[in-house]
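A further point concerns the way the authors explain their paired sequence and structure data. Nothing conveys this as quickly as seeing an actual entry. An entry of this sort, consisting of the sequence and the corresponding backbone structure tokens, reads as follows:
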Amino acid sequence: MTYETVLYDVADHVATVTLNRPQALNSFNQQMIDEFADLWARVREDDDVHVVVLRAAGERAFCTGVDVASGLVMPENMWSEEDPGLGLSPRANRVWKPVIAAVQGMVAGGAFYWLNDVDFIVAADDATFFDPHVSYGMTSALEPIGLARRIPIGEVMRWALVGLDERMSAQRAHQIGLVSELVPQARLWEHVDAIARRIAAKPAVAVQGTVKAVWETLGMDRAAAQAVGWNYPMRGNPSGTAQVARDGFVKPEWTLR
């Protein structure tokens, strides 16, 4: 499938996915949702892909949510409607390969259909985060519900309820753990690509098993998660493979973050 709303490239086991509607602040329309549903299936099935970098073209915005000018395609029967996040989210599409988001500029509302379901976020130091829903008289539900799994509830509710009157700075997002690191926008793509390549160089089965174990047990209580989690190394680490992996292994020069 040829994509029109995103750019897709694979090199050195890293799939780089770039939202490519900068003229619309990378807002998503129905076509982008459909293309992402196809793209995530492609990522899931292609064993040459070990890691995904999700980023966006242009300097002004990573994504400002749904494209209100074009809207989304909704069935006449209200009970047949589906959350657009089902097409956009890597986890809803059962992608267990690491997904790293590189964000810059405005990061608003529906952008969190992606960000709530990535493994970690690196932000340019000029990024701002806000949720416009309530300012327009719309209930904000799906994005803050997902976000409440990542940051303190007080921060989630302030972000959702204040609406367009306030934006969260990249520095504040870093303080509360929403983003793992801040870098200058000019270095963002290069920096995240380097992180992705370090992960992609590790044994893919071990990396994907780690991602799947954590995400599939995230909603469980600790005891249940630990009990279920025991099955992942038992399945992913057959007897003897750990020792084989250590044979000839050279520890890398580590860096301090």
Notes: The two ends are 39 Å apart (CA to CA). Residues 30-45 form the longest helix (16 residues).
